């Protein structure tokens, strides 16, 4: 019987392959939706694990988490310095680490922060952490070497942001891999970010009220310098005096970035503002008290996990819509496959009649027809799960390259149950053509 099935499948191999491919494509669509949605949930939850509480200015909770945890650029209102000073001295807090953005190096975000957050992200796996204002610690996925120097740029390169030519960072360490967006980031002392964006800093913008300061500040600085030069020349002031002033300012900035980090800067209520503050409470009770205390008119405190849960709800709704579309596609494919099998059985009436005439029992004929269909369906389902897994891995890799968040794509127990359920449904559906073959009489089949 099995040799007969094998010979029949070889003889109709192209038709069987087309049916299996159709089933595989319909199955792969559902597998991709399931695996990718699960990977997004797991990857984002792991990325937020090191961030117990995030405090920012009033606004969108989702955007605050996306910016502080996933380093997605967006305009955020700055928190005043007295908020950071109060958090730094709060006994309920293990550490309060500011997070400042705005500059880039190539397409890598430069994030100003402090040593406790570096330790909270897993610490340095190579080199050492901040010692001076000009030190930088790169993420595990940043393709640079220790000892390399670079100038920060305001905004992304394609946005044609201005380069802070007077500011030079030197890479002194590399973060341990985290599987998060911070693997693509470059961490520098927050005081360095403040100095870079301080009013009057050479080649830098003022630290306005947004996460990305407006380039208008820089244009205004250049315009004021050109105006000062134009004003100076009619009064007999040599142009080289202004150029010398620029050089002296650059030397002053460079010397300032060689200074040691001052821990007391964080407790200064007059310190510049920051877009967000990452807080590590000493206990769960302290975490809830702090969130309640800082959900006020001028501050916003959120648990990233809660915000992500709401996002998962939205993602789940989208997944249900996609699953509904996928189910309809699979039902259409199943109906088409069943129709093809029925036509195939009706076209083999003479062959079935000959088998019966030579003494083949009804059960054997029924089993041959049923097993052939089940083998094709099983091959299509297996190919669909394999194809869906491969596509999900490719999509996850692409998302990881863009965001830095590692998305763990993998099958779970429920996926195995789904495969068995689909296989069982396919097996039951193919009983219909098998029963038609079972009830066929040899005489009627040979007369057809």
From TrEMBL:
Name this protein carries in UniProt: ABC transporter permease
GO cellular component annotations of the record: plasma membrane
Similarity-based family: Belongs to the ABC-4 integral membrane protein family.
GO molecular-function term, one example from the UniProt record: transmembrane transporter activity
Broad class of where this protein is predominantly found: membrane
Basic and acidic residues: compositionally biased ranges: 204-234
Segments crossing the lipid bilayer: 321-343, 363-396, 416-438
Record keywords: Cell membrane, Membrane, Transmembrane, Transmembrane helix
Keyword Transmembrane found: yes
All residue ranges annotated as the ABC3 transporter permease C-terminal domain in the record: 331-442
